[in-house]
Amino acid sequence: MLRSQNRLRVAPEPPLLLIGIDEAGYGPRLGPLCHGYCAIRYAPPETNGAEAPNLYKLLKASVRRCPAREGFVTIDDSKKVYSAVDGFELLRRGVETFLNCAALSSGDLFERILPQIDRERLHADRWGQPGPVLSEGPVLVDPVAPPKKRKPARKVVPLSAALTAANLSVVKLGARAMSARDYNSQLAKFGNKAEVNWSVIAVQLREILALAQPGEAIHAVIDRQGGRKFYLGKISELLPGSMPWIEAETARESVYRVEHDGRVMRISFVVEADGDTLPVALASMAAKLARELCMERLNGFFRTHAPELKPTAGYYGDASRFLRETRELRERLGISDAEFVRTK
To answer: Does domain 16-294 have CATH number 3.40.50.2300?
Structure first.
Protein backbone atom coordinates (compact mmCIF):
# COMPACT_ATOMS: atom_id res chain seq x y z
CA MET A 1 0.00 0.00 0.00
CA LEU A 2 2.83 2.39 0.85
CA ARG A 3 4.51 1.67 -2.49
CA SER A 4 1.29 2.56 -4.30
CA GLN A 5 0.98 5.85 -2.41
CA ASN A 6 4.57 6.78 -3.28
CA ARG A 7 3.90 6.19 -6.97
CA LEU A 8 1.01 8.67 -6.80
CA ARG A 9 3.12 11.46 -5.40
CA VAL A 10 4.07 14.13 -7.93
CA ALA A 11 7.02 16.43 -7.36
CA PRO A 12 6.13 20.11 -7.65
CA GLU A 13 7.25 21.96 -10.75
CA PRO A 14 9.70 24.86 -10.52
CA PRO A 15 7.97 28.25 -10.53
CA LEU A 16 6.89 29.82 -13.79
CA LEU A 17 7.39 33.55 -14.37
CA LEU A 18 4.64 35.11 -16.50
CA ILE A 19 5.56 38.45 -18.08
CA GLY A 20 3.39 40.96 -19.93
CA ILE A 21 4.48 44.17 -21.66
CA ASP A 22 2.33 46.67 -23.55
CA GLU A 23 2.41 50.32 -24.56
CA ALA A 24 0.11 53.32 -24.51
CA GLY A 25 0.58 56.44 -26.58
CA TYR A 26 2.34 54.92 -29.59
CA GLY A 27 0.47 57.14 -32.04
CA PRO A 28 -0.13 60.59 -30.41
CA ARG A 29 1.63 63.83 -31.29
CA LEU A 30 1.57 65.13 -27.70
CA GLY A 31 2.40 63.57 -24.37
CA PRO A 32 4.63 60.66 -23.41
CA LEU A 33 5.11 57.24 -24.92
CA CYS A 34 4.39 54.84 -22.06
CA HIS A 35 5.09 51.15 -21.59
CA GLY A 36 3.53 49.02 -18.89
CA TYR A 37 5.06 45.84 -17.51
CA CYS A 38 3.82 43.06 -15.27
CA ALA A 39 5.49 39.93 -13.88
CA ILE A 40 3.50 37.30 -11.98
CA ARG A 41 5.01 34.13 -10.51
CA TYR A 42 3.08 30.87 -10.64
CA ALA A 43 4.23 28.10 -8.30
CA PRO A 44 2.16 25.06 -9.38
CA PRO A 45 1.59 22.47 -6.65
CA GLU A 46 2.19 19.69 -9.16
CA THR A 47 3.62 19.22 -12.62
CA ASN A 48 1.95 21.13 -15.42
CA GLY A 49 4.59 20.76 -18.08
CA ALA A 50 5.64 24.40 -17.60
CA GLU A 51 2.55 25.49 -19.53
CA ALA A 52 1.36 29.04 -18.94
CA PRO A 53 -1.96 28.95 -17.05
CA ASN A 54 -4.99 31.09 -17.82
CA LEU A 55 -4.83 33.62 -14.99
CA TYR A 56 -8.37 34.79 -15.63
CA LYS A 57 -9.54 31.28 -14.71
CA LEU A 58 -7.25 31.00 -11.69
CA LEU A 59 -8.38 34.40 -10.37
CA LYS A 60 -12.04 34.23 -11.41
CA ALA A 61 -13.20 34.60 -7.79
CA SER A 62 -11.71 38.10 -7.73
CA VAL A 63 -10.88 39.31 -11.26
CA ARG A 64 -13.11 39.72 -14.30
CA ARG A 65 -12.91 41.27 -17.73
CA CYS A 66 -14.72 44.50 -18.57
CA PRO A 67 -17.56 45.09 -17.83
CA ALA A 68 -17.12 43.21 -14.57
CA ARG A 69 -19.79 42.75 -11.94
CA GLU A 70 -19.64 45.24 -9.09
CA GLY A 71 -16.96 44.32 -6.57
CA PHE A 72 -14.64 42.44 -8.91
CA VAL A 73 -11.26 43.82 -9.95
CA THR A 74 -11.51 44.78 -13.62
CA ILE A 75 -8.52 43.70 -15.71
CA ASP A 76 -8.75 43.97 -19.50
CA ASP A 77 -7.45 45.81 -22.54
CA SER A 78 -7.09 49.40 -21.31
CA LYS A 79 -9.08 50.69 -24.28
CA LYS A 80 -12.09 48.83 -22.84
CA VAL A 81 -11.48 49.73 -19.21
CA TYR A 82 -10.97 53.46 -19.85
CA SER A 83 -14.51 54.66 -20.51
CA ALA A 84 -16.72 57.72 -20.66
CA VAL A 85 -18.49 56.59 -17.49
CA ASP A 86 -15.62 55.59 -15.22
CA GLY A 87 -12.75 57.66 -16.63
CA PHE A 88 -9.54 56.15 -15.35
CA GLU A 89 -11.06 55.10 -12.01
CA LEU A 90 -11.24 51.44 -13.08
CA LEU A 91 -7.67 51.67 -14.40
CA ARG A 92 -6.50 53.10 -11.09
CA ARG A 93 -8.42 50.60 -9.01
CA GLY A 94 -7.18 47.60 -10.95
CA VAL A 95 -3.53 48.63 -10.98
CA GLU A 96 -3.52 49.79 -7.35
CA THR A 97 -5.17 46.58 -6.13
CA PHE A 98 -2.42 44.47 -7.66
CA LEU A 99 0.26 46.86 -6.38
CA ASN A 100 -1.18 46.65 -2.87
CA CYS A 101 -1.23 42.85 -2.91
CA ALA A 102 2.46 42.82 -3.65
CA ALA A 103 3.29 45.81 -1.41
CA LEU A 104 5.17 47.23 -4.38
CA SER A 105 6.63 50.75 -3.91
CA SER A 106 5.25 53.58 -1.80
CA GLY A 107 4.08 57.17 -2.18
CA ASP A 108 1.33 58.54 -4.37
CA LEU A 109 0.16 56.71 -7.49
CA PHE A 110 2.48 58.65 -9.81
CA GLU A 111 5.46 57.64 -7.65
CA ARG A 112 4.31 54.04 -7.33
CA ILE A 113 3.77 53.42 -11.01
CA LEU A 114 6.78 55.24 -12.52
CA PRO A 115 10.46 54.79 -11.56
CA GLN A 116 12.34 57.76 -10.17
CA ILE A 117 14.49 58.18 -13.28
CA ASP A 118 11.39 58.68 -15.44
CA ARG A 119 9.75 61.04 -12.96
CA GLU A 120 12.85 63.21 -12.88
CA ARG A 121 13.03 63.40 -16.67
CA LEU A 122 9.33 64.25 -16.89
CA HIS A 123 9.78 66.96 -14.25
CA ALA A 124 12.38 68.60 -16.52
CA ASP A 125 9.40 69.89 -18.51
CA ARG A 126 7.22 72.49 -16.80
CA TRP A 127 4.08 70.66 -17.98
CA GLY A 128 5.39 67.42 -16.46
CA GLN A 129 5.54 68.76 -12.92
CA PRO A 130 2.81 68.32 -10.29
CA GLY A 131 0.05 70.86 -10.73
CA PRO A 132 -3.69 71.43 -10.48
CA VAL A 133 -5.96 68.45 -11.08
CA LEU A 134 -8.62 68.87 -13.75
CA SER A 135 -12.23 68.28 -12.77
CA GLU A 136 -13.90 67.75 -16.16
CA GLY A 137 -13.18 64.02 -16.21
CA PRO A 138 -11.30 61.99 -18.82
CA VAL A 139 -10.39 63.26 -22.27
CA LEU A 140 -11.43 60.46 -24.60
CA VAL A 141 -9.66 59.84 -27.90
CA ASP A 142 -12.58 57.97 -29.46
CA PRO A 143 -15.67 58.33 -27.28
CA VAL A 144 -17.46 55.02 -26.92
CA ALA A 145 -20.95 54.07 -25.82
CA PRO A 146 -21.19 53.75 -22.02
CA PRO A 147 -20.80 50.12 -20.92
CA LYS A 148 -23.82 48.29 -19.63
CA LYS A 149 -24.50 48.76 -15.96
CA ARG A 150 -22.54 46.21 -13.98
CA LYS A 151 -24.59 43.74 -12.01
CA PRO A 152 -23.84 43.41 -8.31
CA ALA A 153 -21.64 40.46 -7.44
CA ARG A 154 -22.98 37.78 -5.11
CA LYS A 155 -19.60 36.98 -3.63
CA VAL A 156 -16.15 38.34 -4.37
CA VAL A 157 -12.95 36.95 -2.90
CA PRO A 158 -10.29 39.57 -2.00
CA LEU A 159 -7.52 39.60 -4.61
CA SER A 160 -4.83 38.76 -2.03
CA ALA A 161 -6.72 35.61 -1.04
CA ALA A 162 -7.37 34.66 -4.66
CA LEU A 163 -3.67 35.03 -5.50
CA THR A 164 -2.65 32.86 -2.55
CA ALA A 165 -5.22 30.19 -3.38
CA ALA A 166 -4.00 30.07 -6.98
CA ASN A 167 -0.30 29.90 -6.00
CA LEU A 168 0.36 33.25 -7.64
CA SER A 169 2.40 36.25 -6.54
CA VAL A 170 2.95 39.66 -8.15
CA VAL A 171 6.67 40.20 -8.71
CA LYS A 172 6.72 43.48 -10.61
CA LEU A 173 4.18 45.97 -11.91
CA GLY A 174 4.60 49.48 -13.22
CA ALA A 175 5.23 51.64 -16.26
CA ARG A 176 7.84 53.67 -18.10
CA ALA A 177 7.16 57.10 -19.60
CA MET A 178 9.23 58.81 -22.30
CA SER A 179 8.55 62.52 -22.78
CA ALA A 180 8.16 64.07 -26.23
CA ARG A 181 11.57 65.68 -25.79
CA ASP A 182 13.25 62.32 -25.10
CA TYR A 183 11.17 60.59 -27.76
CA ASN A 184 12.39 63.02 -30.41
CA SER A 185 15.95 62.50 -29.26
CA GLN A 186 15.60 58.71 -29.45
CA LEU A 187 13.91 58.94 -32.84
CA ALA A 188 16.87 60.93 -34.19
CA LYS A 189 19.19 58.25 -32.79
CA PHE A 190 17.36 55.12 -34.03
CA GLY A 191 15.72 56.49 -37.17
CA ASN A 192 12.20 55.07 -36.78
CA LYS A 193 9.40 54.68 -34.27
CA ALA A 194 9.58 50.87 -34.13
CA GLU A 195 13.20 50.99 -32.94
CA VAL A 196 12.34 53.58 -30.28
CA ASN A 197 9.55 51.31 -29.09
CA TRP A 198 11.83 48.27 -29.01
CA SER A 199 14.54 50.14 -27.10
CA VAL A 200 12.15 50.53 -24.16
CA ILE A 201 10.78 46.98 -24.38
CA ALA A 202 14.29 45.49 -24.49
CA VAL A 203 15.43 47.32 -21.35
CA GLN A 204 12.30 46.41 -19.43
CA LEU A 205 12.33 42.78 -20.53
CA ARG A 206 15.97 42.41 -19.53
CA GLU A 207 15.28 43.88 -16.08
CA ILE A 208 12.34 41.53 -15.48
CA LEU A 209 14.24 38.46 -16.69
CA ALA A 210 16.88 39.24 -14.07
CA LEU A 211 14.21 38.61 -11.39
CA ALA A 212 13.71 34.98 -12.43
CA GLN A 213 14.59 32.30 -9.89
CA PRO A 214 17.15 29.58 -10.67
CA GLY A 215 15.63 26.97 -12.96
CA GLU A 216 12.43 28.97 -13.36
CA ALA A 217 10.72 28.75 -16.74
CA ILE A 218 9.61 32.01 -18.33
CA HIS A 219 6.68 32.94 -20.55
CA ALA A 220 6.85 36.51 -21.81
CA VAL A 221 4.08 37.98 -23.97
CA ILE A 222 4.51 41.40 -25.57
CA ASP A 223 1.77 43.22 -27.42
CA ARG A 224 2.99 43.54 -31.01
CA GLN A 225 2.94 47.00 -32.59
CA GLY A 226 3.61 48.14 -36.12
CA GLY A 227 4.45 45.89 -39.06
CA ARG A 228 7.42 44.03 -37.58
CA LYS A 229 6.98 40.28 -37.16
CA PHE A 230 10.59 38.99 -37.16
CA TYR A 231 12.33 39.22 -33.76
CA LEU A 232 14.95 36.48 -33.83
CA GLY A 233 17.81 38.92 -34.30
CA LYS A 234 16.45 41.23 -31.60
CA ILE A 235 16.26 38.37 -29.09
CA SER A 236 19.82 37.27 -29.93
CA GLU A 237 21.06 40.82 -29.30
CA LEU A 238 19.04 41.09 -26.09
CA LEU A 239 20.32 37.76 -24.72
CA PRO A 240 23.90 37.21 -25.91
CA GLY A 241 24.82 33.52 -25.99
CA SER A 242 21.20 32.39 -26.13
CA MET A 243 19.80 29.79 -28.50
CA PRO A 244 16.44 31.02 -29.86
CA TRP A 245 14.22 28.94 -32.15
CA ILE A 246 11.30 30.13 -34.20
CA GLU A 247 8.00 28.51 -33.23
CA ALA A 248 5.79 30.82 -35.29
CA GLU A 249 6.05 34.01 -37.32
CA THR A 250 2.60 34.79 -38.65
CA ALA A 251 0.41 37.83 -39.23
CA ARG A 252 -0.92 37.49 -35.68
CA GLU A 253 2.02 36.28 -33.59
CA SER A 254 5.77 35.79 -33.47
CA VAL A 255 6.75 33.09 -30.98
CA TYR A 256 10.26 32.02 -29.97
CA ARG A 257 11.66 29.30 -27.71
CA VAL A 258 14.87 30.45 -26.09
CA GLU A 259 17.48 28.57 -24.05
CA HIS A 260 19.54 30.94 -21.94
CA ASP A 261 21.47 30.63 -18.67
CA GLY A 262 20.24 27.09 -18.09
CA ARG A 263 16.56 27.95 -18.41
CA VAL A 264 13.92 27.70 -21.10
CA MET A 265 11.98 30.80 -22.12
CA ARG A 266 9.08 31.36 -24.45
CA ILE A 267 8.90 34.90 -25.79
CA SER A 268 5.85 35.86 -27.84
CA PHE A 269 4.90 39.02 -29.70
CA VAL A 270 1.15 38.89 -30.24
CA VAL A 271 -1.24 41.30 -31.94
CA GLU A 272 -3.86 42.53 -29.44
CA ALA A 273 -2.38 40.41 -26.66
CA ASP A 274 -3.88 42.85 -24.15
CA GLY A 275 -7.27 41.32 -24.91
CA ASP A 276 -6.16 37.72 -24.35
CA THR A 277 -3.56 37.53 -21.59
CA LEU A 278 -4.01 38.91 -18.07
CA PRO A 279 -0.38 40.03 -17.48
CA VAL A 280 -0.46 41.95 -20.79
CA ALA A 281 -3.87 43.44 -19.98
CA LEU A 282 -2.56 44.58 -16.60
CA ALA A 283 0.54 46.03 -18.29
CA SER A 284 -1.74 47.79 -20.77
CA MET A 285 -3.70 49.32 -17.91
CA ALA A 286 -0.52 50.44 -16.13
CA ALA A 287 0.75 52.10 -19.31
CA LYS A 288 -2.55 53.85 -19.97
CA LEU A 289 -2.83 55.00 -16.37
CA ALA A 290 0.71 56.42 -16.47
CA ARG A 291 -0.05 58.30 -19.68
CA GLU A 292 -3.31 59.72 -18.35
CA LEU A 293 -1.60 60.93 -15.18
CA CYS A 294 0.99 62.67 -17.37
CA MET A 295 -1.66 64.18 -19.66
CA GLU A 296 -3.53 65.44 -16.61
CA ARG A 297 -0.40 67.37 -15.62
CA LEU A 298 0.09 68.67 -19.17
CA ASN A 299 -3.49 69.91 -19.44
CA GLY A 300 -3.40 71.33 -15.92
CA PHE A 301 -0.27 73.36 -16.73
CA PHE A 302 -1.80 74.99 -19.79
CA ARG A 303 -5.13 75.58 -18.06
CA THR A 304 -3.37 77.66 -15.39
CA HIS A 305 -2.42 80.06 -18.20
CA ALA A 306 -5.58 79.68 -20.31
CA PRO A 307 -8.51 78.48 -18.13
CA GLU A 308 -10.88 78.39 -21.11
CA LEU A 309 -8.64 75.96 -23.04
CA LYS A 310 -10.21 72.58 -23.75
CA PRO A 311 -7.97 69.69 -22.59
CA THR A 312 -6.46 67.30 -25.12
CA ALA A 313 -5.68 63.59 -25.20
CA GLY A 314 -2.75 64.36 -27.52
CA TYR A 315 -3.80 62.28 -30.52
CA TYR A 316 -3.80 63.50 -34.12
CA GLY A 317 -6.69 65.77 -35.02
CA ASP A 318 -7.33 67.10 -31.54
CA ALA A 319 -3.60 67.64 -31.05
CA SER A 320 -3.63 69.94 -34.08
CA ARG A 321 -6.47 71.90 -32.50
CA PHE A 322 -4.60 72.15 -29.19
CA LEU A 323 -1.38 73.25 -30.87
CA ARG A 324 -3.23 75.86 -32.87
CA GLU A 325 -5.01 77.26 -29.81
CA THR A 326 -1.82 77.34 -27.71
CA ARG A 327 0.57 78.66 -30.37
CA GLU A 328 0.80 82.20 -28.99
CA LEU A 329 0.88 80.96 -25.40
CA ARG A 330 3.72 78.56 -26.12
CA GLU A 331 5.68 81.26 -27.90
CA ARG A 332 5.18 83.57 -24.93
CA LEU A 333 6.32 80.85 -22.50
CA GLY A 334 9.30 79.89 -24.66
CA ILE A 335 8.14 76.33 -25.33
CA SER A 336 9.60 75.04 -28.59
CA ASP A 337 8.03 72.38 -30.79
CA ALA A 338 11.18 70.25 -30.47
CA GLU A 339 10.58 69.79 -26.75
CA PHE A 340 6.78 69.58 -26.84
CA VAL A 341 5.62 68.00 -30.12
CA ARG A 342 6.62 64.57 -31.37
CA THR A 343 8.28 64.73 -34.77
CA LYS A 344 6.66 61.46 -35.92
So the answer is: no
